[in-house]
Amino acid sequence: MSERPRRPWTPDVDLSVEAAGRLIAAQFEEFPFPSLEPIGRGWDNDAYRVDGEYVFRFPRRAIAAVCMRNELRCLPRIAGSLPLEVPVPTHAGLAAEGYPYPFAGYRWIAGRTACSVELDAEARRRCAGPLGRFLARLHALPVPEDAPEDPAGVKDVAKLVEWGLDWLEKLAGTGDEIEVARAAIERLAGTPEWDGDARWSHGDLYARHLLVDGAGELRGVIDWGDVHAGETADDLAIAYSFLPREARPEFFAAYGEVDPAIADRARLYALHSGGSLAWYGLEVGDRALREAGRIALTFAAR
Protein backbone atom coordinates (compact mmCIF):
# COMPACT_ATOMS: atom_id res chain seq x y z
CA MET A 1 0.00 0.00 0.00
CA SER A 2 1.41 3.39 -0.96
CA GLU A 3 2.02 6.03 1.72
CA ARG A 4 -0.67 8.69 2.07
CA PRO A 5 0.47 12.06 0.66
CA ARG A 6 1.75 14.58 3.16
CA ARG A 7 -1.00 16.95 4.27
CA PRO A 8 -0.30 20.72 4.51
CA TRP A 9 -0.95 20.61 8.27
CA THR A 10 1.52 17.77 8.95
CA PRO A 11 3.69 19.00 11.84
CA ASP A 12 7.46 19.34 11.75
CA VAL A 13 7.49 18.88 15.52
CA ASP A 14 5.11 17.31 18.03
CA LEU A 15 5.10 19.03 21.42
CA SER A 16 3.44 17.28 24.36
CA VAL A 17 1.35 19.13 26.92
CA GLU A 18 4.02 18.38 29.52
CA ALA A 19 6.80 19.81 27.33
CA ALA A 20 4.76 22.93 26.60
CA GLY A 21 4.25 23.41 30.33
CA ARG A 22 7.98 23.06 30.99
CA LEU A 23 8.80 25.66 28.32
CA ILE A 24 6.37 28.14 29.87
CA ALA A 25 7.59 27.51 33.42
CA ALA A 26 11.25 27.79 32.44
CA GLN A 27 10.87 31.12 30.63
CA PHE A 28 8.21 32.96 32.64
CA GLU A 29 8.56 33.08 36.41
CA GLU A 30 4.90 33.98 36.94
CA PHE A 31 4.00 30.46 35.80
CA PRO A 32 6.04 28.17 38.10
CA PHE A 33 3.47 25.36 37.85
CA PRO A 34 1.25 26.21 34.88
CA SER A 35 -2.03 24.40 34.36
CA LEU A 36 -2.55 23.71 30.65
CA GLU A 37 -5.86 22.91 28.97
CA PRO A 38 -5.61 22.00 25.26
CA ILE A 39 -8.10 24.16 23.35
CA GLY A 40 -7.11 23.75 19.72
CA ARG A 41 -4.86 22.10 17.16
CA GLY A 42 -4.89 23.67 13.72
CA TRP A 43 -2.80 23.64 10.58
CA ASP A 44 -0.13 25.77 12.21
CA ASN A 45 -0.33 25.85 16.00
CA ASP A 46 -1.22 24.00 19.17
CA ALA A 47 -3.12 26.23 21.62
CA TYR A 48 -3.50 25.89 25.38
CA ARG A 49 -5.46 27.82 27.96
CA VAL A 50 -2.98 28.45 30.79
CA ASP A 51 -4.10 28.96 34.39
CA GLY A 52 -7.50 29.94 33.03
CA GLU A 53 -6.34 33.47 32.16
CA TYR A 54 -3.95 33.14 29.21
CA VAL A 55 -3.67 31.39 25.86
CA PHE A 56 -0.29 30.11 24.70
CA ARG A 57 0.23 29.10 21.08
CA PHE A 58 3.07 26.87 19.85
CA PRO A 59 3.91 26.60 16.12
CA ARG A 60 3.87 23.07 14.70
CA ARG A 61 5.57 23.88 11.37
CA ALA A 62 8.42 26.06 10.12
CA ILE A 63 6.08 28.37 8.18
CA ALA A 64 4.03 28.80 11.36
CA ALA A 65 7.14 30.06 13.13
CA VAL A 66 7.45 32.79 10.47
CA CYS A 67 3.79 33.65 11.08
CA MET A 68 4.36 33.75 14.85
CA ARG A 69 7.20 36.22 14.46
CA ASN A 70 5.06 38.41 12.21
CA GLU A 71 2.21 38.32 14.71
CA LEU A 72 4.47 39.23 17.64
CA ARG A 73 5.81 42.17 15.68
CA CYS A 74 2.59 43.46 14.13
CA LEU A 75 -0.25 42.94 16.60
CA PRO A 76 0.95 45.49 19.19
CA ARG A 77 0.95 48.11 16.41
CA ILE A 78 -2.66 47.64 15.35
CA ALA A 79 -4.71 45.95 18.08
CA GLY A 80 -5.52 49.07 20.07
CA SER A 81 -6.99 50.82 17.03
CA LEU A 82 -9.62 48.18 16.23
CA PRO A 83 -13.28 48.11 17.37
CA LEU A 84 -13.33 44.39 18.34
CA GLU A 85 -11.15 42.56 20.84
CA VAL A 86 -7.88 41.32 19.41
CA PRO A 87 -5.26 39.26 21.25
CA VAL A 88 -2.17 41.25 22.17
CA PRO A 89 0.98 39.22 22.94
CA THR A 90 1.94 39.42 26.62
CA HIS A 91 4.66 36.76 26.59
CA ALA A 92 7.20 36.00 23.85
CA GLY A 93 8.85 32.61 24.28
CA LEU A 94 12.04 31.38 22.65
CA ALA A 95 13.12 28.08 21.16
CA ALA A 96 14.56 25.85 23.89
CA GLU A 97 14.89 22.29 25.18
CA GLY A 98 14.70 20.77 21.70
CA TYR A 99 11.65 22.80 20.65
CA PRO A 100 12.82 24.85 17.62
CA TYR A 101 10.27 27.67 17.33
CA PRO A 102 9.22 30.89 19.09
CA PHE A 103 5.90 30.77 20.94
CA ALA A 104 3.62 33.35 22.54
CA GLY A 105 1.09 33.98 25.28
CA TYR A 106 -1.93 36.29 25.28
CA ARG A 107 -4.66 37.27 27.72
CA TRP A 108 -7.71 35.02 27.38
CA ILE A 109 -10.55 36.65 25.43
CA ALA A 110 -13.98 35.44 26.49
CA GLY A 111 -16.20 33.97 23.81
CA ARG A 112 -16.67 30.97 21.55
CA THR A 113 -15.52 30.52 17.99
CA ALA A 114 -18.31 31.19 15.51
CA CYS A 115 -17.97 27.72 13.99
CA SER A 116 -18.54 26.02 17.37
CA VAL A 117 -22.08 27.38 17.82
CA GLU A 118 -25.15 27.22 15.64
CA LEU A 119 -25.77 30.64 14.13
CA ASP A 120 -28.95 31.14 12.14
CA ALA A 121 -29.33 33.69 9.35
CA GLU A 122 -30.45 36.41 11.77
CA ALA A 123 -27.47 35.87 14.08
CA ARG A 124 -25.11 36.06 11.13
CA ARG A 125 -26.85 39.22 9.91
CA ARG A 126 -26.20 40.85 13.30
CA CYS A 127 -22.49 40.21 12.75
CA ALA A 128 -22.50 41.99 9.37
CA GLY A 129 -22.25 45.57 10.62
CA PRO A 130 -19.57 44.90 13.26
CA LEU A 131 -17.52 42.90 10.75
CA GLY A 132 -17.78 45.65 8.15
CA ARG A 133 -16.73 48.35 10.64
CA PHE A 134 -13.88 46.21 11.91
CA LEU A 135 -12.43 45.65 8.44
CA ALA A 136 -12.99 49.26 7.41
CA ARG A 137 -10.87 50.35 10.35
CA LEU A 138 -8.20 47.69 9.82
CA HIS A 139 -7.84 48.50 6.14
CA ALA A 140 -7.60 52.23 6.88
CA LEU A 141 -4.67 51.93 9.30
CA PRO A 142 -1.30 53.21 8.04
CA VAL A 143 0.91 50.43 6.70
CA PRO A 144 4.60 50.77 7.64
CA GLU A 145 7.34 50.02 5.14
CA ASP A 146 8.47 47.00 7.16
CA ALA A 147 5.07 45.31 7.22
CA PRO A 148 5.41 41.62 6.28
CA GLU A 149 4.33 40.19 2.96
CA ASP A 150 1.75 37.42 2.77
CA PRO A 151 3.45 34.31 4.24
CA ALA A 152 1.37 32.19 1.84
CA GLY A 153 2.96 33.92 -1.14
CA VAL A 154 1.40 35.70 -4.07
CA LYS A 155 -2.24 34.72 -4.67
CA ASP A 156 -3.08 35.71 -8.21
CA VAL A 157 -6.36 34.74 -9.86
CA ALA A 158 -4.87 31.68 -11.55
CA LYS A 159 -3.63 30.31 -8.23
CA LEU A 160 -6.94 30.98 -6.45
CA VAL A 161 -8.79 29.18 -9.23
CA GLU A 162 -6.32 26.27 -9.31
CA TRP A 163 -6.31 25.84 -5.53
CA GLY A 164 -10.07 26.20 -5.27
CA LEU A 165 -10.73 23.56 -7.92
CA ASP A 166 -8.17 21.26 -6.33
CA TRP A 167 -9.97 21.39 -2.96
CA LEU A 168 -13.25 20.64 -4.69
CA GLU A 169 -11.73 17.70 -6.54
CA LYS A 170 -10.72 16.21 -3.19
CA LEU A 171 -14.30 16.75 -1.97
CA ALA A 172 -16.03 15.32 -5.04
CA GLY A 173 -19.18 13.43 -4.12
CA THR A 174 -19.41 14.75 -0.55
CA GLY A 175 -22.29 17.19 -1.11
CA ASP A 176 -24.43 19.02 -3.66
CA GLU A 177 -22.61 22.28 -2.91
CA ILE A 178 -19.39 21.01 -4.52
CA GLU A 179 -20.54 21.20 -8.15
CA VAL A 180 -22.27 24.54 -7.58
CA ALA A 181 -19.05 25.93 -6.09
CA ARG A 182 -17.03 24.51 -8.99
CA ALA A 183 -19.23 26.35 -11.50
CA ALA A 184 -18.83 29.57 -9.49
CA ILE A 185 -15.02 29.30 -9.50
CA GLU A 186 -14.99 28.67 -13.25
CA ARG A 187 -17.18 31.74 -13.81
CA LEU A 188 -14.74 33.85 -11.79
CA ALA A 189 -11.60 32.65 -13.62
CA GLY A 190 -11.46 35.85 -15.68
CA THR A 191 -11.50 38.18 -12.66
CA PRO A 192 -9.01 41.06 -13.04
CA GLU A 193 -5.85 40.94 -10.95
CA TRP A 194 -5.46 43.19 -7.92
CA ASP A 195 -3.43 46.33 -8.56
CA GLY A 196 -4.24 48.53 -5.56
CA ASP A 197 -2.30 49.82 -2.57
CA ALA A 198 -1.33 47.33 0.12
CA ARG A 199 -3.45 47.40 3.29
CA TRP A 200 -3.21 45.62 6.59
CA SER A 201 -4.82 42.21 6.19
CA HIS A 202 -5.71 39.61 8.81
CA GLY A 203 -5.08 37.09 6.06
CA ASP A 204 -7.01 34.13 7.49
CA LEU A 205 -10.43 35.45 8.39
CA TYR A 206 -13.06 32.72 8.72
CA ALA A 207 -15.54 31.38 11.27
CA ARG A 208 -13.02 29.77 13.64
CA HIS A 209 -11.21 33.06 14.02
CA LEU A 210 -14.34 35.01 14.98
CA LEU A 211 -15.39 35.06 18.65
CA VAL A 212 -19.04 35.46 19.64
CA ASP A 213 -20.67 35.75 23.05
CA GLY A 214 -23.53 33.70 24.46
CA ALA A 215 -26.06 35.75 22.49
CA GLY A 216 -24.17 35.25 19.22
CA GLU A 217 -22.89 38.84 19.14
CA LEU A 218 -19.47 39.33 17.54
CA ARG A 219 -16.83 40.17 20.16
CA GLY A 220 -13.35 39.45 18.84
CA VAL A 221 -11.01 38.35 16.04
CA ILE A 222 -8.22 35.92 16.87
CA ASP A 223 -5.29 34.05 15.27
CA TRP A 224 -3.34 36.72 13.41
CA GLY A 225 -0.50 34.51 12.19
CA ASP A 226 -1.16 35.43 8.56
CA VAL A 227 -1.19 39.19 9.19
CA HIS A 228 0.47 41.05 6.32
CA ALA A 229 0.29 44.01 3.97
CA GLY A 230 -1.74 42.98 0.96
CA GLU A 231 -5.07 43.24 -0.79
CA THR A 232 -8.39 43.87 0.89
CA ALA A 233 -10.16 41.03 -0.96
CA ASP A 234 -8.36 38.50 1.24
CA ASP A 235 -10.31 39.74 4.29
CA LEU A 236 -13.47 40.75 2.43
CA ALA A 237 -13.96 37.08 1.63
CA ILE A 238 -15.66 36.85 5.05
CA ALA A 239 -18.67 38.67 3.55
CA TYR A 240 -19.15 35.73 1.19
CA SER A 241 -18.01 32.80 3.34
CA PHE A 242 -19.74 33.69 6.62
CA LEU A 243 -22.64 35.97 5.75
CA PRO A 244 -25.74 34.92 3.80
CA ARG A 245 -26.47 37.00 0.72
CA GLU A 246 -29.21 39.04 2.41
CA ALA A 247 -26.74 40.23 5.09
CA ARG A 248 -24.11 41.54 2.69
CA PRO A 249 -25.70 44.95 2.04
CA GLU A 250 -25.41 45.71 5.76
CA PHE A 251 -21.77 44.59 5.74
CA PHE A 252 -20.85 46.81 2.79
CA ALA A 253 -22.87 49.72 4.17
CA ALA A 254 -20.58 49.56 7.21
CA TYR A 255 -17.38 48.83 5.27
CA GLY A 256 -17.89 51.02 2.23
CA GLU A 257 -18.42 50.42 -1.45
CA VAL A 258 -15.96 48.15 -3.22
CA ASP A 259 -15.06 47.75 -6.87
CA PRO A 260 -16.81 44.80 -8.59
CA ALA A 261 -13.43 43.23 -9.39
CA ILE A 262 -12.47 43.30 -5.70
CA ALA A 263 -15.82 41.73 -4.83
CA ASP A 264 -15.20 38.95 -7.35
CA ARG A 265 -11.72 38.33 -5.96
CA ALA A 266 -13.18 38.24 -2.44
CA ARG A 267 -15.66 35.61 -3.60
CA LEU A 268 -12.78 33.58 -5.10
CA TYR A 269 -10.92 33.77 -1.80
CA ALA A 270 -14.11 32.59 -0.03
CA LEU A 271 -14.51 29.60 -2.35
CA HIS A 272 -10.84 28.67 -1.94
CA SER A 273 -11.11 29.00 1.85
CA GLY A 274 -14.37 27.07 2.01
CA GLY A 275 -12.92 24.19 0.05
CA SER A 276 -9.78 23.99 2.17
CA LEU A 277 -11.78 24.06 5.40
CA ALA A 278 -14.21 21.40 4.23
CA TRP A 279 -11.38 19.09 3.17
CA TYR A 280 -9.37 19.67 6.33
CA GLY A 281 -12.41 19.08 8.51
CA LEU A 282 -13.20 15.89 6.61
CA GLU A 283 -9.63 14.59 6.83
CA VAL A 284 -9.12 15.21 10.56
CA GLY A 285 -12.67 14.47 11.68
CA ASP A 286 -13.48 18.05 12.71
CA ARG A 287 -17.22 18.30 12.08
CA ALA A 288 -17.38 22.00 13.00
CA LEU A 289 -14.80 22.96 10.37
CA ARG A 290 -16.31 20.62 7.81
CA GLU A 291 -19.63 22.39 8.30
CA ALA A 292 -17.99 25.84 8.23
CA GLY A 293 -16.40 24.94 4.91
CA ARG A 294 -19.66 23.60 3.51
CA ILE A 295 -21.50 26.79 4.53
CA ALA A 296 -18.75 28.93 3.01
CA LEU A 297 -18.98 27.10 -0.32
CA THR A 298 -22.78 27.38 -0.33
CA PHE A 299 -22.81 31.09 0.56
CA ALA A 300 -19.94 32.10 -1.74
CA ALA A 301 -21.42 30.37 -4.78
CA ARG A 302 -24.60 32.48 -4.55
- Return the structural class: alpha+beta
**In what order do the strands lie side by side in the largest sheet?**
1-2-3-5-4
CATH class of the largest domain: Alpha Beta
Question: Beta-strand level of the residues, as a percent range?
Answer: 5-15%
Strand count, sense and barrel status of the largest sheet are: 5 strands, antiparallel
The assigned CATH architecture of the largest domain is Alpha-Beta Complex
SS element count, helices: 10
Over all CA atoms, what is the radius of gyration?
19 Å
Q: Within the CATH hierarchy, at the fold level, what is the topology of the largest domain? A: Aminoglycoside 3'-phosphotransferase, Chain: A, domain 2
The total strand number stands at: 10
**Roughly how much helix do the residues carry, as a percent range?**
40-55%
What pattern of helices and strands is seen along the backbone? HEEEHEEEHHHEEEEHHHHH
pLDDT averaged over residues = 95
Annotated CATH homologous superfamily of the largest domain: Aminoglycoside phosphotransferase (APH), C-terminal lobe
Distance between the termini: 41 Å
The parts where pLDDT drops under 50 for at least 5 residues are 1-5
Domain tally = 2
Q: Give the CA-based shape.
A: globular
